[in-house]
Every structure is written in C-alpha cells, then in structure tokens.
Amino acid sequence: MPTIVITGTGLFTPAESVSNEALVESFNTFVQRYNDAHASEIEAGECEALAPSSAEFIEAASGIRRRYVVDREGILDPERMVPRLRERSDEEPGVLCEMSVHAAREALEAAGRTPADVDCVIAACSNLERAYPAVAIEVQDALGCGGYAYDMNVACSSATFGIQNAANALQAGTARCVLLVNPEVCTGHLDFRDRDSHFIFGDACTAVVLERSDDAVADERWEILGTRLSTQFSNNIRNDFGFLNRTSGSHAGSRGDSGGRLFRQQGRKVFKEVVPMVAALITDHLDQLGLAAADVSRFWLHQANLAMNQLIARRVLGRDADEKQAPVILDEFANTSSAGSVICFHRHRADLGSGDVGILCSFGAGYSAGSVALRKH
Amino acid sequence: MPTIVITGTGLFTPAESVSNEALVESFNTFVQRYNDAHASEIEAGECEALAPSSAEFIEAASGIRRRYVVDREGILDPERMVPRLRERSDEEPGVLCEMSVHAAREALEAAGRTPADVDCVIAACSNLERAYPAVAIEVQDALGCGGYAYDMNVACSSATFGIQNAANALQAGTARCVLLVNPEVCTGHLDFRDRDSHFIFGDACTAVVLERSDDAVADERWEILGTRLSTQFSNNIRNDFGFLNRTSGSHAGSRGDSGGRLFRQQGRKVFKEVVPMVAALITDHLDQLGLAAADVSRFWLHQANLAMNQLIARRVLGRDADEKQAPVILDEFANTSSAGSVICFHRHRADLGSGDVGILCSFGAGYSAGSVALRKH
Predict the structure, then answer these.
(1) N or C: which terminal CB in chain A sees fewer CB atoms within 10 Å?
(2) Contact predicate B128/A127, CB 8 Å
(3) Under an 8 A CB cutoff, do B230 and A148 touch?
(4) In the annotation, is B156 catalytic?
C-alpha cells in the first residue's frame, strides 16, 4: 500500500474578533433589558429572571478569552445577537466557499501544488451552507481543480473523518491529490442569548492537502501511520435545524427558545461521557500501531474545553501534559468545531523533528471521535 | 488489492402514493383559487394568471405516472401543499433514520449479515434531516452496528459517491463491512405550487451492503470493477435552504417564492448540459476498464427524466436502448434523487447471469455524476 502524507495545511481566520468582555457586555445588556421588560412577571414568580454572565466565569469554565467571528456587529447588538451576513446572488461565492478558498490557497502553496493538481475536493464541516450544489463543488470550481468533490458532515469530527476518506481514496487510487477544507461558521448556529453556550464557539476554516508520498513535492511531509474512527449516538449535543422543519408544527418542548434549530448541549453529560470515549480511542489506536503514549511528542486535540483536553491527555499519558505536549488554541479561537484540531496542528508542529510522532484527534457531537497518527518525515 | 463486492441491497417505499391525476387535481384547485383571488390584478395586467397543468403533460414531459410519498394528505391539500410530518422528540428515531433502518434490514438479510457485522455506516443523500448528530450515527445506533458512521451529500449522485467511499474504505482496510443508506424525502424540499417541478420527485430509501469478496457469505455478489466520479459546478439546480439563511435579509430576487429554500432548476439547461457530461463519463469509464458499450448488459441509470435517460443510453450505445437494457422505474417512483439508480439496480438485476456486466450511474445537482461498473460473480 502506498504511503499517504499530509503535505500542506492552511488556515483562514475572519478579520473580526470578540473578547469575553465585549461578549459579556452585550449579553448582560440583553439580560437587563429582558428582566426589566418582565419585571412584574418575575416579581409575581410567573417568569424566571435571566442571570448575567462575566468574562471571568467564561474563561474559568472554558479557557476561552476571545474568538474570531464573521460578523462582530450583528452578534454584539443586544437587539439582534445573530451575525449579519448579506444575501448573496447565485453568481457570487458562498460564505463557506470564500473561507475555504483562502485556507486552500495557503495549504496548496505549502504543498507546492496548484489547484490544477487537485483531483478530489472534500468539504467536511459541522454545518453546510445549503442542500445543493455541494459546497465542495463550488470550492473546486472557484479554485479551478479537476476531478470530483463532495460534502460530508460528522460535526466536530468532520476533519479527521475527512482525512481518513482522503487517505482511503489515495490508497485505493481513486484520487492522486486531495484537498480537504473545513469551513466552520459556528456563530451561525449558536444561541447568543443562552448563558451556558453563547461564548463557546468561534469561526474559522482550515485546509489540508494529502498525497501519496511518492507523488509529493513538499519537503515537509507528515506520514499518516493510521486512522481510527468511532461513533456512539447521543442526544446530548443536538441541532435540529433541517429541511423537514417546515413539515411539522411547533418546535416547543425540550428544545428551547430556538426550537432546537441551534446548537444545544448537556455540557456536564458530554464532559463525563466523551472524555473516556476519546481517551480509550487514542489508547487503542496507539496499541494498534505498536506505540506507547510516551512515543507521542504532541497531541493536537479538538479544542472545545481546556479542562476536557487536560483530562484526556492525563488519561492517555498517565500524568499531566504540558502546554508544549498538548497545545491550546482555545483561548484565541474558542471552539471552531472540525477546524480546531487542524488549527492546532497548523500552528504547533514547526518545532518537531524528523521521526517525531503526533496524534491529531477530534471529538464532539454524534458522539463522534477520530484519531490520526502522524510521523514527520 | 482485495476485490470489493456488493452483497445486498434494500428498498423502503412509503405506504402512500400520489398519481399524476390526484396531483393535478390539487394543483389546479390551487391555481383556480389563486386566479380567483387575484382576478382584478390579473384583469389589470398587474399580476400573471397561473396556468393549470394536466396528467398528460406530466407524463409526456417526464415519463412519470405516480410517486410514493411520506404524506399524501399534506401534499394534496391545496391550502397547504407541504407534507405534514409530526414533530418527533429527541428520543424517537428521525424520519430519515426510520426509512434507512427498513431498507438496511432488507439489504443486510440479502447479504447474510447482521447489524453486528457492520463496522461503517454511511448516510448519503441530497438533504440531511439536521446538522447534528449525524443521521448515519442514529442509524448505526438504531440497528446496533459498531465502528463509525458519517453523513455525506452530493445531491442525486450521493449513492454512487457513497459506493466509492465504501469501496475505498474496504480496500484501505478502514472498514470490513459497510452499510450505505440513501434516505430521500424529496417531497420535503419540493415546491408543490411550481407547475414546472411539482411533479418530478418522490420519496424512497435504498440501502447497499459492501464487503471484501473473501469476507462475503452471500451467493449473489456484484464485483465493483471500478468507479469514476465527476463534478462541474452549476447554478442550474439549486436549493439554498441552510443554517445561514437566518443571518441574511430577504430571499427575494431570482430565487422565487420559496426564497430559494426549495428545489429549483433551469430544466432545459440541465438537460442540455448533463446529457453529454454523463455520456462522456460512462464512455471514458468503459474505455478505462477496457470494456466496449456492447459488453454492458444493463444500465441502471439515475431516474430523473425518461427522455434524458434514452438520450444518454443512445449516446453511449450508438443506438436506442430497449427497456430491458436501460430499465425505467421513473413511472412508478418519479425522481427519488440518490435512491433512483439503486432502486433500478435493486429491481432489475435478477435475470442477469454470472459474468454479466452493468453500469450503475447517477447524475444531478452540482453538477455531479458517478459511474460504478459491476460484474456478477
């Protein structure tokens, strides 16, 4: 079987960002206005007063300090609290396509490739912009790639699942150069009125170029030693926005104000259930590859919650990991869904040497988890 | 490389169906009521009168006589013209999961497999029910399969693209038994008030089991001789329903009454552009495999339009194909998006003998097209 390598990565970050302080100021204004407007019902005990938040609470709960966003003004307007993106005509590139093209160009340049070299484009992310045409085909066209393209979605694990699909295609010979993009506009499916979750997501897009080692031209190559994926159904992270919403009645019940059409989670349950699932996945994967945890120089983990990552690393290593061994980008980016672990890999690998091994690992809604073992050539 | 075979297929069809006559009666009632309500504006030339349709027009234009649907009553109610599906709680299986489980059980039984044998579930269709958790993970859980699962989407070509992904995974060793499901609720994203398109879709779900030939237990095996995929971006078939709709203003402009959130197409352009694309794909694929068109006993083509399929077959064969060589299920099912070519394969292969070769081919929005060459063992 041919050796498959990652030869380039790219990252697009929106120009605007929002600090915890700015987010909290907007949120607390919304809370004050809500409580004032419902003063009498609250007084009469017919309605619950909303609780304000604080920048300290957010950082302590998550490790997040700020996040990049596609539209700061719409999110921070306490009368809106939804990003404002202009309507685009069919002839203009979509939002996800635009982000993907930026990240893709950087990844292709790093790989020493042009779009014409690419014969497979995979758009893998937690929320696609439309039903059809596929976002990946739009990206393929915008860049001028050949071959074929398709969209896939398995929430926060979309990138690692996409990497396995890319490696499979290269090994089976159904592609020679794969471009994977992970465009995530997480602020588009986030309820900025929900104190428990309004702070956890940011926007970004990553890109990864994969080829057979004997085709590659880049000097920096990361061999895929193996991939291991796992999914276990859970309702603890859900987003029920979908094309069948129009066929049914109200979206009341357990689904909150958004009608379940935005991100919602049972955070404590997720923490409790996903940590052991991911630790076991990584440990089993290392066993399968005949590697010990001590052989792993770096863990590029999905960036959802600092405490979660620290606990996963501790379970795998049997001791605490330092910032160098399990780098954190959460403080700057927040959770960018499938892009998170790839941003971590993109930002924190330059210091590693030939032969060094690292684990790129995603986890999230589904539940889904993916482990990709990489060795620097 | 191991030989990959299809060892079972399954089909779920909704219990209800709608004839052209019933559909036209509802549509024409809507048209009459609309024209009556706008009589004065129409009289004054400020508003265009809607034109009624006929069962004869529909059959002549498409070859469609009836279609299976998830909800007949909601579609035929001239005051609604949208399927009515009850809201489901998180604890209940979703609509797509339910359809998929029915089709999957039939496919697994044909393959002599149980859900426990499956270690990869792919849900590939033109419109997923929600952002997350992935429908495929829900199906994996409902059946009791192990391993991993993910969703993918490339419109009407989702099934052939899914077959290639499954074959790649089996060849690369990242799966041993793949279950592919194609749940299509096309009536959920169709504008039943649009005379040009209200008749073209139906609902159905197909399932395909794929394994390595040396693992297979079923007597009937269809070897995958090769797959070939192609995509070329086009705005001529679009559905702009998506999670970012809420971030932008109105959806007026070129996008019609539905705001572009339902299926819309430039039918003549699609016909003119897709026919040569698909004919070239099949011809190139046969050349690549060292096969002549005359070596192909059967073409299981995507079922969108009868004239389109006849023209594609004629271009590939150099003469007209008979009903036996290029079977039609369009009259009974209408266009079921990604399920169409698989329904055709499911229904029309029993008479073929050992060594016989067939082409399973999809095409549609994107544009996307996929060719899978199969030989009966």
Answers:
(1) N
(2) no
(3) yes
(4) yes
The answer, yes or no, to whether residue A253 has pLDDT greater than 70, is: no
Indicate whether A342 pLDDT > 50.
Answer: yes
What is the torsional sign of CA B217, B218, B224, B230?
negative
Say which DSSP state A32 is in.
Answer: H
Contact B238 A95 (CB under 8 A): no
Which residues does chain A have within 8 Å of residue B168's beta carbon, measured at their own beta carbons?
Answer: 165, 168-169, 171-172, 174
- Give me the amino acid identity at A105: R
Closest in A129, A161, A366 to B133, CB measured: A366
Integer Cα distance of A164 and B247 in angstroms: 33
Residue A226: both structure tokens together = 């193996």
A251 interaction partners in chain B (CB closer than 8 Å): 87
Q: Which of A169, A238, A251 sits opposite B133 (nearest CB)?
A: A238
Q: How confident is the model at residue A251 (pLDDT cuts 50, 70, 90)?
A: very low
The residue of A1, A73, A87 whose CB has the most chain B CBs within 10 angstroms, and thus the best one to mutate to test that interface, is: A87
Question: If pLDDT is split at 50, 70 and 90, which confidence band does B201 have?
Answer: very high
Complex ipTM more than 0.90, yes or no: yes
The answer, yes or no, to whether residue A15 has pLDDT greater than 60, is yes
Residues 6+ apart with CB under 8 A from A207: A8, A9, A10, A11, A12, A100, A103, A104, A106, A107, A108, A179, A180, A181, A182
* Partners of residue B155 in chain A, C-beta under 8 Å: 131-134
Q: Which residues contact B288 (CB under 8 A, 6 or more apart)?
A: B226, B228
* End-to-end alpha carbon distance in chain A: 17
CB A243 within 8 A of CB B127: yes
User: Whose CA is closest to B147, among B111, B173, B175?
Assistant: B175
Q: Supply the pLDDT for residue A87.
A: 87
- Whether A230 sits inside 8 A of B147 (CB atoms) is yes
Convert the pLDDT of each residue in B72-97 to its tens digit. 999 999 999 999 999 899 999 999 99
CA pair distance A299, A319, nearest whole angstrom: 14
Cβ-nearest to B140 among A233, A248, A253: A233
In which residue are the tokens 């190139």 written? B284
Find the residue in A nearest to B364 (Cα).
Answer: A133
On whether the CB atoms of residues A259 and A186 are closer than 8 A, the answer is: no
CB contact under 8 A, A134 and B127: no
Domains and CATH numbers, chain B: 223-376 (3.40.47.10)
Contacts of B112 (CB under 8 A, 6+ apart): B7, B8, B217, B218
- Rounded to whole angstroms, the Cα distance separating B79 from B93 reads 29
pLDDT value at A252 more than 70: no
Q: Which residue, among A303, A273, A94, A56, has the nearest Cα to A183 in the 3D structure?
A: A94
Q: How many CB pairs below 8 A link A and B?
A: 271
Length of chain B: 377
Residues of B in contact with A185 (CB under 8 A): 243-244
CB B180 within 8 A of CB B143: no
- CB contact (8 A) between residue B366 and residue A132: yes
Question: Helix B306-317 vs helix B267-288: angle between axes, to the nearest 10 degrees?
Answer: 30
